[in-house]
Design a protein that fits this description.
The structure holds two protein chains of two kinds.
Chain A (H helix, E strand, L loop, with lengths): L7 H10 L3 H21 L18 H8 L1 H35 L2 H16 L2 H12 L4 H8 L7 H4 L1 H26 L3 H9 L4 H12 L1 H16 L3 H7 L10 H11 L3 H26 L4
Helix pairs in contact in A: 3-15, 4-9, 4-12, 5-9, 6-9, 6-13, 9-12, 9-13, 10-11, 12-15, 14-15
Chain B lengths: L1 H42 L17 H6 L2 H35 L5 H12 L7 H10 L6 H25 L4 H8 L4 H12 L1 H17 L2 H6 L8 H10 L6 H25 L5 H7 L1
Helix pairs in contact in B: 1-12, 3-6, 3-9, 3-11, 4-6, 6-9, 7-8, 9-12, 11-12
Classes of the chains: A mainly alpha, B mainly alpha.
Chain lengths: 294, 284
């Protein structure tokens, strides 16, 4: 049945939906396409060079991954990186900043907000350089530690995963701060004031009133932070290249190394697919959190 | 009277608390400031190294040294072409797509929006290896247009979602008059809705542009020829491939490359009355 002979109602809906088509075409070709392609080549032994045809290998890539110590190392480091920088670092620090901002005077609030947001708006690579300079042996952190008579060390060599986690906190906290500031602004003043008159101290008010009231924002924020952190590449690449050895090689860097240093596109894509699946799970939880608002 | 006392005590306590909050914030601000201070001071320092220190005299030599077409102008122009075109494509597609989603009821709206939100949060980094492999197959690797299209696709879900939310805020009644006068959807979108949601459109535009301008991985994977590289990637070459790194020049380049996005952010934040609008928009 062609559109011309379609019932008028259907035709009207088609005409109305027409403006969606450019976006739909771009999304199907350049986003859905690669995802489908990803699912396909994750099950093949596609290589970068020297191979005329790739063949279907079933779950071989996945079996190999779970027996590969380097892969397990990358999974572990990704977990450490995510928990340290997203769940603990950005989330707590963002909430602390937002809570302090509620009480602080306006100039201090504006100044702090400006500095934290600048760190967030900076291009990823620039942020990487700044933090590289900060953590290097001859960098600012050690200069400060020396000044305080504390032992210094070569952070990027001894504790690279900690250094890149801090870098991610520095870069990403602004987002949590903005989300929590918006959430805290929506809490009616009367509620906190009533509790204050009743003699509830700062911590108790935070724990019993503020946190339960912003729990939806906390959920949303944790999801989005985690998803963002899972896909950090440039920051770590600039600071450590995943090294020394593989001591800061999270999954995106592992994937890159397998694809381009070892030419194993099929294997790298299998890892990509796993990362995508974890991301999708988080994404689905996020949608559930938002569900009532769509 | 007792109540009055209580009131005074509360005001006192509040003042004390404000001071404590100010002090706490200033400590945090100083910590966040340290890396930023390094880049500004080093850019002006004739003998910059890796730590924050008072410069050995002020100089613009570092800027002078990098303001050549090789190091600065070509990469920045590439960035502008790449991110500008992709942003334009994103905003036009998003505005068109948001219109029916915001204006007409359809059973498909909800599933479509849920898919869009789902896509918003997918880790794009994960699909870069398959995108690379795909682009090699279809001959889009190392082309500006391929990279632009991929950039647009990666930003579109969020842009559509934001645009739809802003569009929902424009009352429908204004268009109904235009409809009765026989205006088409496209006419009422361009003449009535978009002009009324200027701040919304600028947020979507600036947000898309800023995200692409700072993105390293996408051009790093999809472009190969050095002449085509945007600043995000070229800065990395500049840093990595010269045994002895000129930190002062690197800092100067970082500043030049970062300034446009910082200015754009300030512009949008101003227009929306405070920097909190993006946070609110993202929150849903």
């Amino acid at each position: 049945m062609t559109t011309a002979s379609a019932p008028p109602k259907l035709r009207r809906s088609l005409v109305r939906a027409l403006p969606v088509s450019p976006a739909l075409i771009v999304l199907l070709l350049f986003l859905a396409g690669p995802i489908v392609y990803c699912v396909w080549i994750a099950f093949t032994d596609l290589r970068l060079t020297g191979q005329a045809q790739s063949s279907f290998v079933g779950f071989e890539n996945f079996r190999e991954a779970f027996g590969d110590e380097e892969f397990l190392n990358a999974v572990w480091l990704t977990l450490v990186f995510t928990v340290l920088s997203s769940l603990i670092g950005q989330n707590t620090l963002g909430l602390a900043l937002a809570a302090l901002m509620q009480r602080a005077s306006k100039p201090v609030r504006t100044l702090t907000g400006g500095i934290v947001i600048t760190a967030w708006v900076l291009p990823e690579v620039v942020a990487g350089f700044l933090l590289y300079a900060f953590f290097r042996r001859e960098g600012t952190l050690n200069a400060i530690l020396g000044w305080l008579h504390l032992p210094s060390q070569n952070w990027l060599f001894t504790l690279p995963i900690l250094a890149v986690s801090f870098a991610n906190v520095w870069r990403g906290t602004a987002f949590s701060m903005l989300v929590y500031s918006a959430a805290l602004n929506e809490i009616p003043k009367e509620i906190t004031e009533a509790a204050e008159v009743d003699g509830a101290g700062g911590w108790r008010r935070m724990w019993h009133i503020t946190l339960p009231m912003i729990r939806r924002s906390i959920g949303t924020n944790l999801m989005l932070n985690t998803l963002q952190t899972l896909s950090v590449f440039g920051l770590i690449w600039v600071m450590t290249r995943g090294g020394p050895g593989d001591k800061s090689q999270t999954l995106p860097l592992f994937m890159y190394e397998q694809a381009f240093q070892n030419s194993l596109i099929g294997y790298a894509t299998a890892v990509a697919l796993l990362l995508l699946l974890v991301g999708s799970l988080f994404s689905l939880v996020y949608i559930r959190l938002l569900r009532t608002e769509v | 009277m007792a109540l009055n006392h209580l009131g005074l005590a509360l005001t006192d306590r509040r003042r004390g608390r404000r001071l404590a909050a100010d002090a706490g914030l200033l400590v945090l601000a100083a910590a966040f400031m340290l890396p930023l201070a390094w880049v500004v001071l080093s850019a002006l320092d004739p003998r910059a190294d890796l730590r924050v220190k008072a410069p050995d005299g002020l100089t613009l030599d570092n800027f002078d040294a990098i303001l050549t077409s090789d190091v600065t102008f070509t990469p920045l122009l590439n960035s502008l072409i790449l991110c500008g075109s992709a942003t334009l494509l994103t905003v036009v597609c998003a505005a068109l797509a948001a219109y029916p989603l915001s204006r007409f009821r359809s059973r498909l709206n909800r599933p479509f929006l849920l898919t869009i939100i789902f896509a918003t949060s997918l880790p794009i980094t994960a699909i870069m290896v398959p995108v690379y492999a795909l682009f090699v197959q279809v001959d889009l690797i190392d082309t500006m247009q391929g990279t632009i299209l991929f950039f647009a696709a990666s930003q579109l879900p969020f842009a559509i979602w934001l645009m739809k939310n802003f569009m929902d805020g424009v009352p429908k009644e204004l268009e109904e008059a235009a409809w009765t006068d026989g205006a088409s959807s496209l006419q009422s979108l361009v003449r009535i809705v978009l002009p009324l949601m200027g701040p919304g459109v600028s947020v979507v535009t600036v947000f898309s542009f800023v995200m692409m301008w700072g993105n390293f991985f996408v051009p790093f994977m999809l472009l190969l020829t050095p002449d085509q590289m945007p600043a995000a990637v070229s800065i990395n070459e500049f840093f990595g491939n010269r045994g002895m790194v000129a930190y002062g020049q690197l800092a100067a380049f970082s500043i030049i490359y970062s300034t446009p996005v910082i200015l754009l952010y300030v512009l949008v934040a101003r227009r929306l009355g405070g920097g909190f609008a993006l946070g609110g928009a993202v929150k849903g």
